[in-house]
Design brief:
The protein contains 1 helix and 7 strands; from the N terminus they run H-E-E-E-E-E-E-E. The chain is mainly beta. It has a single domain, classed as Thrombin, subunit H (Beta Barrel). The longest helix has 4 residues. The radius of gyration is 16 Å and the shape is globular.
């Protein structure tokens, strides 16, 4: 056999390998909220939201929303059905004054 071998990933790609940021468009709010996706824990992805952000008035754990995910270069996006898994106040020094909003994508295109 000639040529270069085909590289195959042994683990599944994570959402952070595919997308860089997520946009919340909440029906009750006139604003769009865009956050960098964080992969802080093995349980899933999250975004960091300032404790004084109006977004926290419009979302709660268990909500299912259609969120827009953007690739690193922002040229492509995908709207994915996403569950708000938790909204946790974080008092650790690094994230003080921020809430961790845990996200779980329910359906991905092509799956």
């Amino acid at each position: 056999m000639t040529g270069k071998p085909i590289k195959r990933r042994s683990e599944r790609r994570s959402i952070t390998d595919q997308y860089y940021s997520v946009e919340f468009s909440v029906k009750k709010s006139i604003f769009l909220y865009q956050f960098k996706i964080r992969n802080i824990s093995p349980e899933g992805i999250c975004v960091l939201v300032r404790e004084d952000s109006d977004l926290l008035n419009y979302i709660k754990a268990g909500d299912i929303l259609d969120l827009k995910y953007y690739k690193t270069d922002s040229s492509q996006s995908a709207e994915l059905k996403t569950e708000i898994r938790h909204i946790t106040e974080n008092d650790k020094r690094r994230f003080k004054g921020l809430y961790l909003v845990g996200l779980s994508i329910l359906r991905r295109p092509g799956l």
